[in-house]
User: Fold Protein yippee-like from Aramus guarauna.
Amino acid sequence: PELSEEPPAEMVKMTKSKTFQAYLPNCHRTYSCIHCRAHLANHDELISKASVQFFFMQSFQGSQGRAYLFNSVVNVGCGPAEERVLLTGLHAVADIYCENCKTTLGWKYEHAFESSQKYKEGKFIIELAHMIKDNGWE
Assistant:
């Protein structure tokens, strides 16, 4: 039988991985990872702390202190969802991390079990300890 010079498919290793990083426009106020400065969110995606506190009578707490709730984020990876009992009840959440430096930043709300918490589904918590304000802040 002929010998193949190519290794079996299960033995082929990828030696290079490509990271795609999104850059938010310089003209907008943004939040970046405090550890590596990768852009994380546009200020326009922040769910107003005042409106959240007024309508839902709560502020957001992460495992390391205060946190902000965002509609969308960039340059983050998402771990597997798991059920956790948080201050506002049982939720299915997935930890999120910076795609650039791999620091855990907060979590994504996958599912809220209480009807009063459904507004969080699909939204992201980033702890203030892991982000810095960039571009156009006065």
Remarks:
- The beta strands are 30-33, 39-42, 61-62, 65-70, 76-86, 89-98, 104-112, 124-127, 131-134.
